[in-house]
Amino acid sequence: xxxxxxxxxxxxxxxxxxxxxxxxxxxxxxxxxxxxxxxxxxxxxxxxxxxxxxxxxxxxxxxxxxxxxxxxxxxxxxxxxxxxxxxxxxxxxxxxxxxxxxxxxxxxxxxxxxxxxxxxxxxxxxxxxxxxxxxxxxxxxxxxxxxxxxxxxxxxxxxxxxxxxxxxxxxxxxxxxxxxxxxxxxxxxxxxxxxxxxxxxxxxxxxxxxxxxxxxxxxxxxxxxxxxxxxxxxxxx
Length: 237
What we know:
α1 packs parallel to α9. The chain has one domain. The protein is mainly alpha-helical. Strands 2-1-3 form a three-stranded antiparallel beta sheet, covered by helices on one side. The protein has helices at 3-9, 18-53, 85-93, 117-124, 133-145, 150-154, 166-169, 177-189, 195-205, 217-235, and strands at 60-67, 72-76, 108-115.
């Protein structure tokens, strides 16, 4: 395991439970198989879906692998993805026929992300410079509390193309062990993405609050300004 990267994502390092080491090894093995044997076809599924829809919906998709000695099953990792072009396409690429390739990987259920490699690499060159996703979510909640119409509040919501997966980059979200292992595994097999460095750097940058600042004062100023504008709009009819 890449201990330097992993320690940046977690506030603890070794000693890790043996099960964590085994789980990480399996994730690395799975991503190695995906990149070596199935990446081209996975990229084609992403590309086909984007062409059919008319725009890029996502460059990563959550999936679940259910694996045992006699069967392999792919499931979408989110309910809203079931029955979509992504499920149809990925089910053709990763089906029962891939079982021999996964021989040696411990049986179990693996939650991971399929990556549109070239598109995500291109996206991360620029998108990570504009960390707006959790600020948009905060603004949306504020507008809803102020009684602004749902359509207006929705406009402030996180755009799905800004950050994938968004919770990895949000310093307000606790980094779970599974997420840290998954990021580290992706980083090891797709080093060109520099995913772990970007996640760690982004989270740390937004947690660097000077000790003399007891609260996010700039958020309070923004909040007051937004509420003022909302009140003015209501007063004007």
